[in-house]
Amino acid sequence: MENRKIWIKANGNEDIATGHIRRCMTIADELIRRGMDVEFILADDDSAHVLRVLSDQDNIVFDARILHTDYSKPEEELEIFAEFFKEEAPDFFLIDSYYATPDYFADLKDLIAESGRNIKLGLIDDFGKNDYPVDLIVNYDISGGKDIYSAGIKLLGEQYAPIRPAFSKTDYQVRPRARKVFLSTGGTDPYFVIKNILTEIYEGDSPCRKVLDVTGLECEVIVGTFFEEDYRRELEALSDRHKEITLHEHVTNMPELMSSCDYAVSAGGATLYELCAVGVPTVAFSMADNQVDFAIGFDKLGAAKYAGDARKDHRLVQKIVTWGTAAVDNPGFRKRMSDKARSIIDGKGTEKIVDAIVGLLV
């Protein structure tokens, strides 16, 4: 097959974090490996910054153009695309945005028809609440298939999670006693979950410290791209006071870091899928609507434990710490969860998505 042009539209900032761009980068990398010409379409400089930071971590460079529009109003981009289509057009246009409505896709299809171009459309959807006039749809929610979609190609379920290959190729060992914990909330931590967990474990007369033994527990903490500066300083102060806390920014060896930990605490986004691909027993929580079903789905299958929603569960931190402490001396429990997680997430979702895109363009 001759080189085909692929556009990928995704954004990232302190409100929507980095997950959209991260998963699209994973797909883009595989498309490029297959000989496709890939270009990111970004709304603004914030999104360009996210793409640049994540690309630097992965030691890869992507072509990108910035539209200088409001990421939450994709309808503003339609006139821009109409002008683009007069001069050039992709063979396939993959869109990853919660703000792209069925009407938006209908208008985009009208523009494509008016331009005389043959552009296939794809969407990554997390909610399964609407049908979209697209040729290919991806929804890797673990809770099951969605019968609402009418797209010709439907890639549904956890087998299509776009995991970076390194995560599924990492060896993992369940140790007799857990002593190292991986903590991540993704690109942001608007509810200060990490700080509250660390405070509960290491400082003051917290309820957990009065009844639970956390002696020697080490925490590997991921500092997200959009953590506010004041918050970073608070975490640095905690780390300075307690040698058991290690902060990590711009991590380039994430699979290895995950595999060195005995269990994890993670928001229910892309990181949860990566942890499961590695096999790290995980207690998950949600802090956005799209994370709730993901985390609950893993819990129902025994691949992770769901602790609750950071937006409304006032006992979330105590539940997380209690679960983690109970898992310390229970290697059998941790191994069962690890084995189940790895059996569900095989790490081949990216390849399957790209296979479908390439097949669509034959």
Q: Percent helix among the residues?
A: 40-55%
Rg = 21 Å
Question: Which ranges are low-confidence, i.e. pLDDT below 50, for 5 or more consecutive residues?
Answer: none
Tell me the name of the CATH class of the largest domain.
Alpha Beta
| Global shape | elongated
Helical run tally? 14
Fold blueprint:
Elements: E1 5-10, H1 19-33, E2 37-42, H2 45-58, E3 63-66, H3 78-87, E4 92-96, H4 102-115, E5 120-124, E6 136-139, E7 153-156, H5 165-168, E8 180-184, H6 193-202, H7 207-211, E9 218-222, H8 229-241, E10 245-248, H9 254-259, E11 263-267, H10 270-278, E12 282-286, H11 289-300, E13 305-309, H12 316-328, H13 331-344, H14 349-361
Parallel strand pairs: 1-2, 1-4, 2-3, 4-5, 5-6, 6-7, 8-9, 8-11, 9-10, 11-12, 12-13
Helix pairs in contact: 1-14, 3-4, 6-12, 10-13
Describe this structure in words.
- By secondary structure, this protein is an alpha/beta fold.
- It has 2 domains: 5-163 and 347-361, Rossmann fold; 167-344, Glycogen Phosphorylase B (Rossmann fold, 3-Layer(aba) Sandwich), CATH 3.40.50.2000.
- 42% of the residues lie in helices and 17% in strands.
- It has helices spanning 19-33, 45-58, 78-87, 102-115, 165-168, 193-202, 207-211, 229-241, 254-259, 270-278, 289-300, 316-328, 331-344, 349-361; strands spanning 5-10, 37-42, 63-66, 92-96, 120-124, 136-139, 153-156, 180-184, 218-222, 245-248, 263-267, 282-286, 305-309.
- The strands form 2 sheets. It has a 7-stranded parallel sheet with strand order 3-2-1-4-5-6-7. A 6-stranded parallel sheet has the order 10-9-8-11-12-13, with helices on both faces.
- Helix 8 (229-241) links the parallel strand 9 and strand 10 (245-248).
- The longest helix has 15 residues, at 19-33.
- The chain is elongated and about 70 Å long.
- The N and C termini lie close together (7 Å).
